[in-house]
Design goal:
339 residues, mainly beta
Length: 339
């Protein structure tokens, strides 16, 4: 990691809020396979996983291990373009790529491939494969111009869900009550509810359109049991799912690409930089300018990890939050300890 001096940041007209944080940057010059970071995850054992345009990266605070496809190794990852990473359990990760979905056994670092034979002329688009998990850690997947599937762990296979509407999905996520929200390619938000289920969910109702937001959706995020919308005019709306209340906020500078939160703040990533805001979204400032943010992740100790386009991973830490260091004597085998 290379420390970015706060003095330099001040000369870049960065917000005074930056003075309250330690800021570091990591790029391909520091060992990453690529400096465009599409997705971030801190797994339950504390390791950081970075999805890039050229490989999956695992980081343990000392070094980076890179995973790329190998034509001679059937247990290698299926594609080098990583779109999403989800932890199923301490033993397994799911990785969505541009060529199939992978289940990674983190104990022996081998990949099992799913849907790699589904790619055809209609599916060569970005984010052809989407993944999401519910509160029971059951994985769901969407294949472009195909179906939504759920993973049957006992049979180690994906089974299709029957949905009465034929839509192209560009984003999906679960809320805390295991309702599946989907955003279509026409920017329509829909909701799917299931019967009480163990491992074989069944559709309880047909897909319902979300009608509480009257304007065209440009982007939507789920955080703290709220839906955060942004419209074409960059206005921000927050919908509380439990109370069904909708609040509108002033236009936000730039298109929001990612959002995460700590106890007192939201962090919003845009093409113009990283913003910090209070929880009321009434007082925001540019924390790190001139970076195009692709992904955000809140890690342990309220450390915010920032994935950028062509500028690597940035890490901001609150004051007096020191990173824990590990020696080779305490680390044991690579990958067994936290960042």
């Amino acid at each position: 990691m290379r420390t970015v001096l706060l003095l330099i940041l001040l000369f870049l007209s960065i917000s005074s809020d930056a003075q309250n944080y330690d800021i570091d940057q990591m790029t391909n010059e520091d060992g990453l396979s690529n400096s465009s970071i599409t997705t971030l995850l801190q797994s339950s054992n504390g390791l950081m996983w970075f999805g890039t345009w050229d490989g999956l990266n695992m980081y343990n605070s000392r070094e980076v291990k890179i995973f790329k496809p190998s034509p001679t190794d059937k247990t290698s990852i299926s594609n080098n373009i990583i779109r999403d990473i989800i932890e199923e359990s301490p033993h397994y990760l799911w990785i969505a790529t541009d060529f199939g979905i992978n289940r990674l056994n983190v104990e022996n670092m081998t990949f099992e491939h799913f849907f790699v034979n589904r790619r055809n002329g209609n599916s060569i688009v970005e984010n052809s494969y989407l993944i999401a998990k519910n509160t029971k850690n059951q994985l769901f997947a969407y294949v472009y111009r195909d179906k939504i599937y759920y993973y049957d762990k006992d049979k180690n296979e994906f089974k299709p869900l029957t949905i009465d509407q034929d839509v192209i999905i560009k984003k999906m996520f679960f809320d805390k009550n295991d309702r599946l929200w989907i955003v279509t390619d026409e920017n329509v938000l829909m909701k799917i509810e299931f019967n009480v289920y163990d491992r074989t969910p069944e559709i309880r109702t047909t897909v319902s359109h979300f009608d509480a937001f009257p304007e065209s959706i440009q982007s939507v995020f789920y955080i703290e049991d709220k839906l955060v919308f942004q419209n074409a005019g960059h206005n921000v709306f927050v919908f509380d799912i439990e109370t069904r209340s909708l609040k509108k906020y002033p236009a936000f500078s730039g298109t929001i690409k990612a959002i995460t939160s700590t106890e007192h703040h939201y962090f919003l990533g845009t093409e113009e930089g990283l913003y910090i805001s209070d929880k009321n979204l009434t007082n925001s400032s540019l924390l790190i300018p001139k970076i195009s943010v692709l992904s955000l992740c809140k890690g342990t100790q309220d450390i915010i990890w920032i994935g950028t386009d062509m500028q690597g991973v940035w890490r901001i830490s609150p004051p007096k939050k020191q990173f824990q260091k590990f020696s080779k004597d305490t680390m044991g085998n690579f990958g067994e300890n936290a960042v």
